[in-house]
Amino acid sequence: MHINFTTKVWFIILLITFISCSDIEINSKWRENDIIVDGNKKDWERNLNYFEDEKVAIGVLNDSENIYLCLTTSDRSKVMKILNNGFTIWFDPQNSDEEIFGIQYPIKKDFDEEMTMMIETKGRNDFDERNNKSRPNEDFPNRMIERLKAEQNEILIVNEDNFPLNVYKLQNDSGLEISINIEQNQFVYELKIPFAENKSRKVYVNAFPNEELNLGFATGEMEKPEFDAGPGGNRKGGMRTPDEGNEGMTNSRKRDGGGMGGGRGEGNMSDLTKPIELDIKILLASKN
User: Fold this and answer.
1) Using CB atoms within 10 A as the burial measure, which of 24, 108, 110, 250 is most buried?
2) Global pTM exceeds 0.85
3) How far is it, in rounded angstroms, from Cα 247 to Cα 53?
4) How do the domains of the chain map onto residue ranges?
5) CATH number listed for the domain at residues 22-226+255-283
6) What pLDDT is recorded for position 108?
7) For 77, which DSSP code?
């Protein structure tokens, strides 16, 4: 059978796309010890999976009622993205007709807050370089965490178009628990969420032991300001709609703000503006 050149090209493109969309897989472990959601990773010894390319470690545990997640990283740029651009964990049960939803915390900062934090960070980095100092024990990330906790005490639940569905206080009775912290120069993010065995809770994932669950870990994209054409060049206000800037989403999902986004940075800003995007396929554990 004769195959023309165009057909060959499309076949190669489809093959590359299929390979590039393959999921990372993690087997959840049955929770054997107490997990206290306090931003301390001591409960996660020997239960973290390190991803060298992403410079993050992720752990997943479950029992008969809850799923427990832990993400850690020592990469300063990733910590800045999480704290400034918002961080969403997406839940996509494989054996369910339930819609995809995301849990967003921290919530994305506005542009002025982002720029203030970036200027502070750049000033400290420049000072260290000029004075040839390394500051492994500096307290700047810790102060960022404390500032965030003081300013943001809410968790946002969003649909796959990043439309808000509900909001909960950081301390709540929904069954959802989240805590972030810096310990030993490492950022720690912990989350506990009920799943379908515990439907009495207000928030839960519709999944069961021995089932697959897709998780997405994603930050938002730092937005560039818009300027009026008129005198003064005042920046326009307003929020981007969920459909803006969402071309090429993983699994064709439209996720922006604290969710998935196609980062397009330039020059020295490229790493700061490029969002974190990591999709993982989880096999939930069973006790037996």
Assistant:
1) 108
2) no
3) 23
4) 22-226+255-283
5) 2.60.40
6) 85
7) H
